[in-house]
Description:
Number of strands: 25
Low-confidence stretches: 426-435
CATH architecture of the largest domain: 2-Layer Sandwich
CATH topology of the largest domain: Aconitase, domain 3
Strand content: 15-25%
Oligomer: single chain
Helix content: 25-40%
Strand order of the largest sheet: 22-21-20-19-23-24-25
Amino acid sequence: MGMTIIEKIISNHSNKHCVIPGDIIDVEIDARVARDFGGPNVVKNMRENNLKVKDASKTFFTFDTNPTGSDQKYAANQQICRIYAREQGIKVYDINSGIGTHLLIDEGIIYPGATAISTDSHANIIGAIGAFGQGMGDRDITAAWNKGYIWFRVPKSVKLFLKGKIPAEVTPKDIVLNMLSIFGANKMLGFSVEIYGDDIDKLSLDDRITIASMATEMGAITILFTPNKEIREYCEEKRNKPVEIISADNDAKYELNITIDATKFIPMVSRPGKPHDAVSLKNIKAVKIDSAFVGSCTNGRIEDMRVVAGILKGRKVAPGVMLKIVPSTNVVWNQCLDEGLIRIFKDAGALVSNAGCAGCAAGQVGQNGPGEVTVSSGNRNFPGKQGKGDVYLASPATVAASAVAGYITDMGNIPDHPAIFKTGGHSHEYSTIVEKAKHPEKPEVMEGRVWVINRDNIDTDMIYHNRYLTITDPKEMGKYTFDNLAGYQDFAKKAKPGDIVMTGNNFGSGSSRQQAVDCFKSLGIQAVLAKSFGAIYERNAINAAFPILTYANIETLELRSGKRIQVDLKKGEVKNLETGKSLQIQPFSEIQMEIYQNGGLF
């Protein structure tokens, strides 16, 4: 039987000649990356478990979430990683380098058909060159640093065909926003999406990166492109050796075959709070803005910078509006300098910062304040993700045009006079060996008080906000649980040890942060049951021995918050202890039970 692209890549990196969806396979990882976010915990895991690095040549640190080193805790964490890197001979892409996922491609570390993992939830960006990347938590990264491989469940595949010519005014960002408006945050949950189409082969590397980078926002494992001639040559030049293109077999089996009429795509903007709440740009025009941001792993490439410069040349940013521009890598920054783009940006009144993740991370320019309205080229606008204000997502062209106009608009409708605001009204000492107590057998049946939270797409910023990411002691994490989930900000104060959480679809979408799991453990929460989980969150929970289970429907249980329930992990049964009613849910898999009884991946 033929295989899809993802199945071929996984098969090529395992001892299996053929794999099928659902198989749990040990996959060899070509690039094993930890960032300044997550990196210190990887170092901690390596030291405390007395683990050795399998192959330093395939192991990397990338400091991209706080490339300014402006936060003391980030600075301390970066130095922890630097010291460990010197000891182990690990390459560090330091704060002067840029976004790690882009560096993997541009440095030739990753190539078509390769595999990579990172503490970056957008590691799947390398799908742009037909490679397989996954964001993972610090336990997974630690295991891969030590073993060279990590377990992975082969995902089902979707074949997506964009039919017809894409309209000229539709940018790559618009393409992915159109896709988000169609599929939402979870219709592609857990799928590997292969994208084809009449115009797809014409897309540049930068175009593909924009689209691939937002697979995470659709809940997809990855969006995979088959490299064209130009991209293959680019990868071979960077790698200095031939590369093999992995393509799907003609008889490959797909869970879904979807065709979309791309001729109907339009310029779009995502409204604040949800990347998938994308609507026509025409419906958002004239929204007054306080700030604008161009950058992130989605839109910080040189082609994006050129588009922005083309709009800003000879113009000024509107009075009272702050435009922040952050190239994705130092190479892109230098290209902007060489091509005179930096001068154009500065003459227009923009702030240009050094390369990195910028507004998507709390450690660099791009954050906004309470009441501030921002139009951003980033990939996420979850509440609190880019600050305390409202964030609209749009293409770099729309962002630049809006910055000049003072309100959201497109490049064809920039006014002669902008809208204006009305007035008036570190330690070097580490323990190398830790004596571990033997774990007693963990219960397979648990009872507790239930919290019923009937919401879908509760993301990791809602569970554990990024402003607390520098906290590394799990004991401190519990008090911040659901701190950013509207209506549940007092959850940590009201929760009791032994409680169980039941919620909706796509729980834990978004970031790869392990803290979004550990905060529940810190509070003594026994388990989380959901209709589905974000792919990275699911791995983090399983690897941390924190029980998570999925269910299809619980209405027959007649549950409401405060009632007591019983959960059988092995049988996959939930019982309302007050009524005696029960139903079957998805039980623990063999590997999940093994990790659970082991007390974690280690």
